[in-house]
Amino acid sequence: MEALVWSSNHKLELCDCEEPQITAADEVKIRIEMTGVCGTDLAVITGKEEGAPDIIRGHEAVGTVVEIGSSVDRVKVGDRVVIDPNQSCGECYFCLKNQPHLCMGIDGMGMPIAGLNRNGTFTFFYSTAQTFAHRIPDHMSWETGVLIEPLACVLHNFKEAGVSADDKVLILGSGPMGILCQMVSKSIAALTVATEINPYRLAFAREISDFAMTPSQFTEATVHEICSGHKFDLIIDTVGTQLEFAERWIERGGRIVPFGINAKYRYTFSPTKFAQQAIKIIAAGEYRHMFEEALRFAAETPELKKLVTRKVKLNQHEAAINELIGYELDTLKPVGSETVKTVFVP
What we know:
Layout: E1 2-6, E2 12-16, E3 27-36, H1 39-45, E4 55-56, E5 60-68, E6 80-83, H2 93-96, E7 125-129, E8 133-135, H3 142-145, H4 148-161, E9 168-172, H5 176-188, E10 191-195, H6 199-206, E11 211-213, H7 220-226, E12 232-237, H8 243-249, E13 250-258, H9 271-277, E14 280-281, H10 291-300, E15 308-312, H11 317-325, E16 341-344
Parallel strand pairs: 9-10, 9-12, 10-11, 12-13, 13-14, 15-16
Antiparallel strand pairs: 1-2, 1-4, 3-5, 3-7, 3-16, 5-6, 6-8
């Protein structure tokens, strides 16, 4: 079967790979119907994160169960499911503390994660233990379903940050995770404001948030006007490089959530200032028991499907990736981008 593999040449390449099979009684085999391109995939492709070589990338996926092991009782053949790529072991120190999002695996070498250190979903078929395949309603679109895994990440971060109905929230960046943050914030918080430099995504954000603008439009007067003389109670950096900006606009007693991925980014701050002003930095990690909540939110928010703005075949991945990162990987020539969420449809 065709699959997009992160090669030892540090490139995403279309390869012919062996089709996965059921190897245990509790496993299911899933035909991939749709799989999303995540910011972590882009971080690896652009050199901001390391990627394990010879691994099929992809971890945000929905599909149809086509085969089940002898002991499977959670799903049946024909069920539509969303995949949980984080295969916590249930036995390590962290799992036993009810912190499966920090799982180190049975061997202590880290949690198996689809598309990261085990074969993922940028392909036609995928197999996993039934625990990591969640049924989605028959009426739910694939486009909505494919957003459940990233939505679980967003909901986990909001829960860890303790977002309340009184909060004024600023979300930095209006990519897929930023837009999801805006949708969740609108359902909870008093005020939702977003930033974005891409005109297409900025227009998209303006349909969701109370205010959306470019970072250059932020001034003391503007912020004080929209925040009634104050700054923001919660700032979420979905870009991964904006903590200086966040520090400038956070209110005393506020919370800053680093959410975007860029391993090369470094940020220097004054602990004394944060201590004196009671500013908290909240790093939430992966989602923790959030799939059911994400499924409920998605079922109540069918407009989620509007975030899927581009569907491409696996053999069109180069043009799709170039559009998402805004330039050609080979030539560095700028590329216009008019998409929020791009997905592969095998």
